[in-house]
C-alpha cells in the first residue's frame, strides 16, 4: 500500500497546483466548491486516521463550517498524506485484516478492517479529485493528469524500459 499512498500524496499535490490556477475573483462559486471538496476529502482522511489510531477525531461532520485558505489546506493535506504514508510503511501485514469499530459523524456505529479503511481513504480521495477536476474544466483550467500509471512512470522511470 506504500505505492498507493505515495500516489495519493502526489495526486493531491498535482491537484493543488491546478487549483491555484482558478481565479477566485472570476469564478468565486467554483473556487469555493473546489476548496470545499478538497477540504471534505481531508476531513474524512483525518476522521479515518483517528479511527485507525483508536482516537477521537473531534469532527461533528465530514466538512468544516469554515472554508480554509488554499495554502492552509494544501499544508494540512500534505501533512495528512505524510501521516498515511508513514502509517502504511510501518503497519504489520497481519494488522490489515484486524477489525476497527468506530462511530460515524452521524452517530451510527461502523466496523471495517484496516485494509477496508485504507482502501476507502484512497477511493474517496480519488472520487473527489475527479469532482474538482470537473470544476477546473468549468473554469477553463487544465485538469491534472493524475492517473496511477502516470505516477508510476514518473516516480519509477525505468518502467518505461520494462524495468520493475
From TrEMBL:
It comes from the Bacteria. The keyword tRNA-binding does not apply. One of its GO terms (molecular function) is metal ion binding. SUPFAM superfamilies: DinB/YfiT-like putative metalloenzymes (SSF109854). The keyword Metal-binding applies. It holds the Pfam family DinB. Keywords: Metal-binding. A divalent metal cation binds at residues 40, 124, 128. Belongs to the DinB family. This is Damage-inducible protein DinB. It comes from Pseudoxanthomonas winnipegensis. The lineage of its organism: Bacteria, Pseudomonadati, Pseudomonadota, Gammaproteobacteria, Lysobacterales.
Amino acid at each position: 500500500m506504500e505505492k498507493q499512498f505515495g500516489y495519493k500524496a502526489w495526486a493531491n499535490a498535482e491537484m493543488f497546483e491546478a487549483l491555484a490556477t482558478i481565479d477566485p475573483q472570476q469564478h468565486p462559486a467554483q473556487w469555493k466548491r473546489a476548496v470545499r471538496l478538497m477540504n471534505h476529502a481531508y476531513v474524512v482522511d483525518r476522521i479515518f486516521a483517528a479511527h485507525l489510531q483508536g482516537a477521537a477525531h473531534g469532527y461533528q461532520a465530514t466538512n468544516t463550517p469554515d472554508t480554509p485558505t488554499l495554502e492552509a489546506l494544501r499544508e494540512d493535506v500534505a501533512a495528512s498524506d505524510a501521516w498515511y504514508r508513514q502509517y502504511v510503511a510501518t503497519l504489520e501485514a497481519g494488522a490489515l485484516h484486524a477489525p476497527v469499530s468506530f462511530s460515524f459523524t452521524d452517530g451510527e456505529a461502523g466496523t471495517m478492517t484496516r485494509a477496508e479503511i485504507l482502501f476507502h481513504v484512497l477511493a474517496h480521495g480519488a472520487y473527489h479529485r475527479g469532482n474538482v477536476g470537473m470544476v477546473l474544466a468549468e473554469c477553463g483550467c487544465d485538469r491534472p493528469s493524475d492517473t496511477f500509471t502516470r505516477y508510476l512512470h514518473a516516480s519509477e522511470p525505468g518502467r518505461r524500459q520494462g524495468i520493475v
